[in-house]
Amino acid sequence: MTTLSNPGDTDILLVIDVQNDFCPGGSLAVPDGDSIVPGINALAARFAHVVLTQDWHPAGHSSFASAHAGAAPFSTTAMPYGEQILWPDHCVIGTRGAAFHAGLEIPHAEMVLRKGFRPAIDSYSAFYENDRTTPTGLAGYLRERGFTRVFGTGLALDVCVRYSLEDARRLGFDAVLVEDLARPIDTHGSLAAAMQAFAASGVTLVRAAA
Question: Is the pTM for the entire model greater than 0.70?
Fold first, then answer.
């Protein structure tokens, strides 16, 4: 594993879903999720270009266990686009849980991309909805701006960070996981699967800290 070198003009930092509901005390807390906030702030200051993503669900979203009678959180169900983990209600539009963590300080971020707002389909990746075909528009934005390499940080490593970086590779971008600035949920063997997927797709791993 290598340490992150100085980013260039065609590099962009993707800060994924650093929101209250994914931090300790939130409804879908990632263990130790808030510990990465100071490091992300410090890393973002080294990047001229940063995009933030924000999970943004309407109440009663189809990915919530509460929307399925008798379903337990973290169980799975079949959706038209494939198997879906059913989550606790989280990041509901306009709630405190959907807000960015108060410690996140990246005033020069150039874009906030909201995802998961379609009631019938979940959205892990910053590039596509979970049907793997409906785009968010991020790829076009990055291409028009001339970016070629995406660095991923945030929550959760094995869900939204994973699928965002995999899709970045699939779309022809270089993709880098900043491993010490992401934290996993690790449910259903998801962390091991994420690490295997990174290796298979050509996502490289670096550390922000030496």
Answer: yes
